[in-house]
Design brief:
Layout lengths: L2 H40 L22 H10 L4 E6 L2 E6 L2 H8 L27 H18 L2 H22 L8 H17 L8 H17 L2 H5 L3 H6 L1 H27 L9 H14 L10 H32 L1 H14 L14 H13 L9 E2 L4 E3 L2 E3 L4 E4 L1 H5 L44 H18 L27
Parallel strand pairs: 2-6
Antiparallel strand pairs: 1-2, 3-6, 4-5
Length: about 500
C-alpha cells in the first residue's frame, strides 16, 4: 500500500470517528436539553434532577424511603414534580387539589407500570377502560354487600378465636410472642373464606406458599421493587429476583384460577357462598339479560378480580392490625380505655356490625390508627389520559400523578398536632365518634379509583380488633423491647412497623 493511500485511509478513518463522536455528543446535548426544558418549562417545579438517575440520590439507602419522600414534600409546593430515574411523577400534597384532580374523568387512567405487567385484566393496575369500569362495579357491589353481611361476623370471629387458641397452644401464656405469622394467618383466612370458602392451618403448605408469595418475598426484596419502576439498569442487576417474582405471581394466579373453576363447576344459583359465587352470579345475570357488560365478565377477568380482592384484603388489613397492636403496647392508657368500653358495651358476646354505632372510642382508635400510620401512604399512581390541568399547571398526556395521602394525613394544616397519636380527635363534645370528618381524612385515597374494599376493611378491622381484645382480657399487650414507631426502611410501598 502506497504512502498516499495510507494517508487517505488515515484521514477517512479519523473523519469517521470525529463524525460519530460529534453525532453522539449532539444526541446527548439534545437529550439533556429536552430533559431540562421539560423540567424548567413544562412541569410543576420540584427538586433539581440529574440525568439518568433523576432525584434517586435524595432517597438514602439507610433511611426509610417514605421518610425521604416526606422530607422532599415538605420542601416543595402543594404540586411538584419528582424524577425517579428519567421518569417524572406529579405529586399532590394538598387535599383540595387532590380531590379536585382525582374527581376528574381525565385522571382515572393508570400509567404503565413494570410490576403492573405481571397483573393482566385486573382492577388495581388496569388502565381506565370499559373493561375496568365493569369489573370494578361488580367487585364493589360484591364487597359492599358482604361488608354488612352477618356471615362476615361469623367468619372474622371464628378466625380470631382459632388464632388466639393456636397462639396459646404453640407459644404458651405469659411469654413473648412474635405475632406476625398468626396475624397474617388470621387475615388470610378471613379473605380465603370470603373469596372461596377455604380455611388454612398455620402448617398448611398452601398457606406457606401464599404467605411467601404475597408477603415474605416482598420483604426479601424490600424497597428494591420501588426502584424497579424507575430504572432499567436496576432491573437488569435484579433480573434473577424479577424472574422469581414473575413465577411466584404466575403460580398464585393459577392457584386462584383453580379455586374459581372449582366454584364454577359446582355453582348453585340458589346458594351464594362467597365472592366467587357472587361474581359468577353477576356474570350469569349479564349473559341471561344480554347486557353489554357480559363481554367483560369473562372467567379470566373474574379470576383477576378475586386475586385483587385477596391481595388487598389480606396484606393492607394485616399491616393496619400490626400497627394497632404496637400502638396499644405504646399507649397502655389507650389500651385500658378500649378494654373498658368493650367490656361495658359488648361484654363477652361476639361483636356485631351494629356495635360500631355504640363503641365510639374503638371507632376513634381505628380512625386515628389509619391516619397516624397509614399502610399505603402514596396510594396508587393515576395517569392523565389527555393533556389536562392541575391547579395552574398544564399536565401532559400520559403523565403519572399521585395524591400523597400519607403526607396529607400528617400535615398540620389539616390536623392539630398531627405527629401525636390521639384518638380523641375523632370524638365530639358529646363523646360520640365523629362520622363527619375532615375532608383531609383520606386513608383509602380519593376519587373513583379509591379503595374498592374500604367498607369491608372497616367492618373487618372492627370485628377482628374487638374480638382479639375480648379474648385477651386477662392479659396486657406489652413489648419485650422498644424499637420506636418508625416504619421498616426495607418495606415496599405498604409500610410495615419495624
Amino acid at each position: 500500500m502506497s504512502v498516499l493511500t495510507q494517508l487517505l485511509m488515515s484521514i477517512i478513518y479519523d473523519n469517521i470517528w470525529t463524525t460519530i463522536t460529534s453525532l453522539l455528543m449532539a444526541l446527548v446535548i439534545y437529550k439533556l436539553a429536552k430533559f431540562y426544558y421539560r423540567y424548567y418549562y413544562c412541569l410543576p417545579p420540584g427538586p433539581f434532577p440529574l440525568p439518568i438517575i433523576g432525584n434517586l440520590l435524595s432517597f438514602r439507602f439507610k433511611q426509610f424511603w417514605e421518610t425521604s419522600l416526606r422530607n422532599i414534600a415538605k420542601n416543595n409546593g402543594p404540586v411538584f414534580t419528582l424524577h425517579l430515574g428519567n421518569t417524572p411523577y406529579i405529586i399532590i400534597t394538598d387535599v383540595d387539589i387532590g380531590r379536585q384532580t382525582f374527581g376528574k374523568q381525565n385522571f382515572l387512567g393508570r400509567p404503565d407500570s413494570f410490576l403492573g405487567t405481571f397483573f393482566k385484566n385486573d382492577i388495581i393496575f388496569a388502565d381506565y377502560s370499559q373493561h375496568w369500569e365493569v369489573l370494578r362495579r361488580v367487585a364493589l357491589s360484591a364487597v359492599q354487600k358482604y361488608s354488612v353481611n352477618e356471615r362476615l361476623v361469623n367468619v372474622a370471629v371464628d378466625c380470631v378465636d382459632k388464632m388466639v387458641q393456636t397462639m396459646l397452644e404453640r407459644e404458651g401464656p405469659n411469654k413473648p410472642i412474635d405475632p406476625f405469622n398468626y396475624l397474617y394467618l388470621t387475615y388470610l383466612n378471613i379473605m380465603a373464606t370470603s373469596c372461596f370458602s377455604q380455611y388454612y392451618n398455620i402448617d398448611d403448605q398452601e398457606f406457606k406458599q401464599i404467605k411467601y408469595g404475597f408477603k415474605d418475598f416482598s420483604l426479601e426484596i424490600g424497597s428494591r421493587s420501588f426502584l424497579w419502576e424507575s430504572s432499567q439498569i436496576i432491573r437488569w442487576f435484579d433480573r434473577k429476583f424479577i424472574q422469581r417474582y414473575k413465577k411466584i405471581i404466575k403460580d398464585l394466579q393459577q392457584l386462584m384460577k383453580d379455586k374459581y373453576l372449582i366454584h364454577l363447576n359446582d355453582y348453585d344459583s340458589g346458594i351464594e357462598r362467597d365472592f366467587c359465587d357472587a361474581l359468577i352470579a353477576a356474570k350469569n345475570d349479564a349473559i341471561r339479560e344480554a347486557k353489554h357488560t357480559a363481554a367483560y365478565l369473562t372467567d379470566d377477568n373474574l379470576v383477576m378480580a378475586v386475586f385483587d380482592l385477596f391481595i388487598a384484603g389480606t396484606d393492607s388489613s394485616y399491616i393496619v392490625f400490626l400497627w394497632s397492636l404496637l400502638l396499644l403496647a405504646y399507649y397502655p392508657d389507650v389500651q385500658q380505655k378500649l378494654r373498658k368500653e368493650i367490656e361495658s358495651i359488648i361484654g363477652d358476646r361476639i361483636p356485631t356490625h351494629d356495635d360500631r354505632q355504640r363503641c365510639h372510642y374503638v371507632m376513634a382508635f381505628m380512625a386515628e390508627t389509619l391516619r397516624y400510620k397509614n399502610p399505603g401512604p402514596t396510594g396508587f399512581f393515576h395517569k392523565a389520559m389527555t393533556t389536562g390541568k392541575i391547579g395552574d399547571y398544564t399536565i401532559p398526556e400520559g403523565m403519572a400523578v399521585f395524591v400523597y395521602q400519607g403526607f396529607i394525613l400528617l400535615d398540620d394544616k389539616n390536623f392539630e398536632n398531627p405527629d401525636t397519636f390521639k384518638p380523641e380527635r375523632f370524638i365530639d363534645s358529646d363523646g360520640h365518634y365523629m362520622t363527619t370528618r375532615s375532608p383531609a381524612f383520606i386513608p383509602f385515597s380519593v376519587g373513583r379509583r379509591s379503595c374498592v374494599g374500604e367498607k369491608l376493611a372497616i367492618a373487618e378491622f372492627f370485628l377482628v380488633f374487638v374480638r382479639f381484645l375480648q379474648l385477651t382480657q386477662n392479659y396486657d399487650i406489652v413489648l419485650d423491647s422498644h424499637h420506636g414507631l418508625d416504619g421498616d426502611y426495607n418495606s415496599t410501598l405498604l409500610v410495615n412497623p419495624q
